[in-house]
Amino acid sequence: MSMEKSATKSNQNLCFPRRRGQIKMKILKSMVKSAVGLASMRSQSGRGGSGSGSGSSTPSTATPSGYDSDRKLNFTNKIYNFAIDFNTIGQRGLHDQKEKMKILQILRRKLSSSQIRSTVTPSLSLAFFYRQLHSSSNPASFGVAFDIDGVLLRGSNPIGGAPRALKRFYDDYGTLKVPYVFLTNGGGVPESKRAKELGSLLDVNILPLQVIQGHSPFKQLMRRFENELIVAVGKGEPAEVMSEYGFKNVLSIDEYASCFDNIDPLAQYKKWTDKLDGNQSSKSKHTALSNDPCSQRVAAVFVVSDSVDWSRDIQVLCDILRTGGLPGKEIAHQPPLFFANDDLAYQALFPSERLGMGAFRIAVESVFNAIHPAALKYTSYGKPNPSVFKNAETVLMHVLQSCHTNHQVDGRKQFFKTLYMIGDNPSVDIKGARQAGSPWFSILTRTGVFKGKENHDDFPADLVVDTVEEAVDYILSKECIS
Ligand code: G3P
Ligand code: MG
C-alpha cells in the first residue's frame, strides 16, 4: 500500500508519445529488413565463395584471391553501418524501455532466423547490438540512493523483496541500467569489502564506488592527519578502514587500549575478550610502528562504527580527550573527535530499534562534560547532513558515467531530474532528503525504524510505501521503465 504526499512531482511528460515511437518502429523495421537481407547475402556468398563445399574458411587457399575478402569487408561495413544507424535512433531519444524491448524482440527474431550470428564477427553479434543500444541510449535522468539497515537488510537478512527490486536495475546481461548507490550511515569495513558483502547478500554485482558509508567522508581528513597517530573506534575493522583512506599511523581502540596496563579496570570481568590473541596482534603492530604509541600523542579520534564495549571505550576516550591525547598525563587541550553518524537508533534484527552511534555520542558527551571543565567538541558526519546528499549526487553521476562508457554524460550536477532517497528513518533519511531539496524525492518504507500507518508528522516523506520493492515499482513506472 503506498501513500503519496499531496502535490508530489508529477510523472506526466516523462514518457514519449506513442506516435513518435510508432514512426521509429517503422524506420527500424525497414532497417532490420535490410540487415536480414545483408545476412542472407553473406551466407550465400560464404557458401558460393568457398567453391569447394569443403567448409574451409581460409580465404587464401579456398577462394579466389581478393574476391571473398572484399565482399566480407563490404558486408561487415554494411552491418556496422546498420549498427550505427540503430544507435543513432537510440541517441535521438528512445527513452521508453518498452519501445526498446519491442525493437530488441524484432532483432532477436529476425537475426536468429538468419545466419548473421554464425557469419559475422563476435563484436557485431546480437549482444553487440543489445549492449550498444543500452550504452548509447540517452542516460537515465534519475538516480536512486538506498538506505541499507531497515530498507534492504535487517542484520544480514534481505528484507522487503530487496534482491528482486535491485535486479530490476540491471539488464539481461547484468549490466547496470539505472544509476544507484547505497547511502548508509553504517560501516566498519572498507567500501570495497562492503560492496562484496552486499553483492553476495543481495545477489547483484556492486561496485565499491556505489557504497557510501557513514565514515566515507573521513577520507577528506586524510591530508590533515596523514602521519599523525589517530585512534579508530568501532565494530568490524575500523583501523583498516582508515588505513585504506590513506591514514598512515592508525590504531584501533582495541590495539591502543592494550598499550596501557589497567586502563580498563573491568577488563578482567569481560570473559568474552580473547586477551591473549588481542595482546599478541597489538604488540606486533606496536613494534611495527616507528614510535611507541603509548608515548605518542593521539592527534584525533575517529568513531568509525558502533562501539562494541561502551564502558571501555567511554573510559579510554575520556582519557585521550581530557589529556590532549596522552592518557594518564595532565589535563590538556582536547584533540578533535569525529563520529561517522549521529543515529540515535537503527533497525537491526530485534523487533524494536537498537541504540546507534548517536546514543553512544550522548553517553561520551554526558560523561565527559560531567568530569571535564570544558564541554566536549565533536563533529558528526552521515545523513541527514546536506553534504552527504550533495556527495551522493556526485557519486551517482560517476556511476552513471560508468554505465555509459561510450556516451558523453553531461557533468553538470543539475543533470538528474529526480534523485530518489529510499529510507526507513524519518529523522535521518527523510529529513536529509528534504533538506537537500530538489531534485531529491523521499520515499519512506515501513520495514525499519518507521512503522506508522500514515506519513511521519515531523518529517513527512514524498511517498510512503510498505517495502523497498514497492518503492522500486513506483520509481520504474514513474520513469516509464518496465
Ligand atoms: O549502524 C547502522 C545505522 O546507524 C544505520 O544504517 O543503513 O539505516 O543508514 P542505515
Ligand atoms: Mg536505515
UniProtKB/TrEMBL annotation:
SUPFAM superfamilies: HAD-like (SSF56784). InterPro entries: CDP-alcohol_PTase-I (IPR050324), HAD-like_sf (IPR036412), HAD-SF_hydro_IIA (IPR006357), HAD-SF_hydro_IIA_CECR5 (IPR006353), HAD_sf (IPR023214). Gene3D superfamilies: HAD superfamily/HAD-like. Pfam families: Hydrolase_6, Hydrolase_like. Residues 55-66 have a biased composition (Low complexity). The lineage of its organism: Eukaryota, Viridiplantae, Streptophyta, Embryophyta, Tracheophyta. It comes from the Eukaryota. Residues 39-69 are annotated as: Disordered. This is Hydrolase. It comes from Solanum tuberosum (Potato).
